[in-house]
Amino acid sequence: MNNDLANEDLRVFVMVARKASFAGAAEELGMSPAYISKRIGILESVLGVRLFHRTTRRVVVSEDGERVYARAQTILENIDHLYDEVSATRRMPRGQLRICSSFGFGRNVVAPAIAQLIEVYPSLQVRFEVFDRLIDIASDGFDMDIRVGDDIAPHLIAKRLASNYRILCASPRYLARRGTPKTLHELSNHDCLVIKERDHPFGVWKLRSGADEQTVKVTGPLSSNHGEIVVRWAVEGAGIMLRSMWDAGRHIECGELVRILPEYQQEANIWAVYPQRLTGSAKIRVCVEFFQKYFAERQQATSAAGAKPRGTSGRRRAST
Questions:
Q1: Are strands 124-131 and 59-61 parallel, antiparallel or unpaired?
Q2: DSSP code per residue over 62-83
Q3: Which residues contact 214 (CB under 8 A, 6 or more apart)?
Q4: In whole numbers, what is the pLDDT of the chain averaged over residues?
Q5: Which residue in 12, 75, 80, 79 sits closest to 42, CA to CA?
Q6: What is the model's pTM?
């Protein structure tokens, strides 16, 4: 069997095993289900074993398939590491990189960064996906998660890309109608716009003022798993939100939102998170370095813009 086809068949097999679906693997790999089925059939013929038990509803890895799956992952990782080592000598990474992030941050911040990444390293192929939940990047086959928030599992490696924090804010219209809370406990009497964050319990806000950390349970008539929707509701006067400065800052700067209880904030730094097995990857190292530089330049540009007076109001742009 041609080595390239053999490697491709192993990648197809691993993806089918992860997705427990031929159709799911086909969608993930950009291939037809018929082609996926054909490659699995060829691999089973070459190995002389049945890799999956197939039913009308699901695909289950067989006992032989489990052994092949473990070896296939090792083989594919070794191939990727070989490419990484060779690429490292040229400082030109190659191959596929699967990156994930959250909805709003992924679309507004990470996606433009990836577009610039590919301009710098054209030999990379990036598959980028966004989620409203915290996923297991290792088991789901991702190489890197660009994440907002400091709660990171100990079995993962994390490199901080930029400092960031979440703040409380609302529109002037809402505050004129309902009043401005003077303490965190007064939030329970307000309409709070709750986001189903990937790394936080629903409706529980932990905020810090110096060494003092407090937890408040908030409620309100509106909630969503999409931060951009909640920001729009806040701008339109629907309630109080807790949102990252990278997102809320521009609305505060133009007067659409007002920061409340400014002594309180929630740490939510920006991280590149990846599995332990990729600690020596040239692709990961080069990409992390790129993202660190990208976010540093982005923050410098925002800070420089914020230092400029705006008309007679003297209002300054909030740092993201």
A1: unpaired
A2: -HHHHHHHHHHHHHHHHHHHHH
A3: 184, 206, 207, 208, 264
A4: 84
A5: 12
A6: 0.66
Three-state helix/strand/coil letters over 177-192: HHCCCCCHHHHHHCCE
Pair type for strands 223-224 and 266-267: unpaired
Please check whether residue 194 is in contact with residue 243, taking contact to mean a CB–CB distance below 8 angstroms: no
Which residue is associated with the tokens 């996906």?
A: 129
Tens digits of residue pLDDT in 107-142: 989 999 999 999 998 888 899 999 877 788 877 888
Cα angle vertex 232, ends 131, 268, to 5°? 50
Q: Residue 42: what residue type?
A: I
Q: From start to end of the chain, where are the E strands?
A: 52-54, 59-61, 95-102, 124-131, 144-148, 156-162, 165-170, 192-195, 204-209, 212-217, 223-224, 240-244, 258-259, 266-267, 270-275
- Specify the higher pLDDT residue, 20 or 230: 230
Residues 6 or more apart whose Cβ sits within 8 Å of residue 61: 17, 20, 51, 52, 53, 69
Residues for the chain: how many in total?
A: 320
d(CA 31, CA 210): 53
